[in-house]
């Protein structure tokens, strides 16, 4: 199943990379304020679904652009292009993210970055890999020495004040904060130890499913802002190596509003 997901991701990457050579030719649609979709997102997604359903016709799908289809104990969760805003600006940092959930548990994960030719994969219980190299989260112990990834609010500004308070604190307590623009790759970078931790408010399942399995299989922890398991549904997510994860939660705790702890 992992091999099929890799094949699907590489085929989608071909579509995305060809389109990136002539961005001006694309028709960009607004889903909502600052939320863009192009025919590339849709074509990449259709191609991924075709590869997956060709191999596993009975499986169910949850995909960003086309929604849900099918009913099965196996469900593929797909973000065909994570980092669309970067892609539209030719900022070379975006990826394809594909995860397989079996009976409610994350089982397989693929995140592919076509700009760097970085293929991140994980299978439950079998570890996480980058281009065949086994991944471990970083060993950094102190938040003061940590590099932390995040995502800024950009279309839903309900939590802007809360987020800014979190960021203000994090800027002062860490060695640096980065906003690369692709949540899936941010999580892959936590798995690889490039980032010591990550947090973002209000992500969707397709942004995080594959990345969460990568982080866990690399020895890291993932949770909502209270460290619980509800992050896949709420999209409020923190991740990191075990030491940094605990300190991230401590730093976020004073800023949590009732909506963020529900
Ligand atoms: C977005 C990216 C971004 C994150 C957003 C996501 P998209 O996904 O992951 O880093 O901050 O919340 O929606 O729209 O480019 O697939
Ligand atoms: Ca996304
Ligand atoms: Ca997307």
Could you outline the blueprint of secondary structure elements for this entry?
Blueprint: H1 2-20, E1 28-32, E2 35-38, H2 39-55, E3 60-63, E4 67-69, E5 74-82, H3 84-88, E6 95-102, E7 105-113, E8 118-123, E9 127-130, E10 133-134, E11 147-150, H4 160-173, E12 176-178, H5 183-192, E13 197-200, H6 205-217, E14 221-223, H7 231-234, E15 237-240, H8 242-252, H9 258-261
Parallel strand pairs: 3-5, 11-12, 11-13
Antiparallel strand pairs: 1-2, 3-4, 5-6, 6-7, 7-8, 8-9, 9-10, 13-15, 14-15
How is this structure best described in words?
By secondary structure, the protein is of the alpha+beta class. Helix content is 37%, strand content 27%. The strands form three sheets. It has an eight-stranded mixed sheet, with helices on both faces. It has a five-stranded mixed sheet with strand order 12-11-13-15-14, sandwiched between helices. The protein has a two-stranded antiparallel ribbon with strand order 1-2. Strand 3 and strand 4 form a beta hairpin. The chain starts with a helix and ends with a helix. Residues 79, 82, 206-207 line the site of one calcium ion.
Offer a concise description of the structure.
The protein has helices spanning 2-20, 39-55, 84-88, 160-173, 183-192, 205-217, 231-234, 242-252, 258-261, and strands at residues 28-32, 35-38, 60-63, 67-69, 74-82, 95-102, 105-113, 118-123, 127-130, 133-134, 147-150, 176-178, 197-200, 221-223, 237-240.
């Amino acid at each position: 199943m992992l091999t099929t997901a890799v094949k699907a991701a590489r085929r989608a990457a071909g579509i995305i990379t060809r389109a990136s050579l002539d961005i001006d030719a694309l028709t960009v649609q607004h889903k909502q304020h600052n939320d863009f979709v192009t025919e590339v997102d849709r074509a990449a997604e259709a191609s991924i679904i075709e590869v997956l359903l060709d191999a596993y016709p009975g499986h169910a799908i949850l995909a960003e652009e086309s929604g849900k289809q099918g009913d099965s104990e196996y469900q593929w969760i797909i973000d065909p292009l994570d980092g669309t805003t970067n892609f539209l600006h030719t900022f070379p940092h975006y990826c394809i993210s594909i995860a397989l959930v079996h009976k409610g548990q994350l089982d397989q994960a693929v995140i592919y970055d076509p700009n760097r030719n970085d293929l991140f994969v994980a299978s439950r219980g079998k570890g996480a890999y980058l281009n065949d190299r086994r991944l471990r989260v970083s060993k950094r112990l102190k938040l003061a020495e940590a590099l932390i990834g995040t995502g800024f609010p950009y279309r839903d500004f309900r939590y802007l004040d809360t987020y800014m308070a979190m960021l203000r604190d994090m800027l002062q307590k860490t060695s640096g904060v980065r906003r690369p623009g692709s949540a899936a790759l941010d999580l892959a970078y936590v798995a690889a130890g490039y980032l010591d931790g990550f947090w973002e408010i209000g992500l969707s399942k397709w942004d995080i499913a594959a990345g969460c399995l990568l982080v866990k299989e690399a020895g890291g922890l993932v949770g909502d802002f209270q460290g619980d398991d509800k992050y896949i549904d709420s999209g409020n997510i923190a991740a990191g190596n075990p030491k940094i994860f605990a300190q991230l939660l401590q730093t976020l705790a004073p800023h949590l509003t009732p909506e963020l702890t529900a």
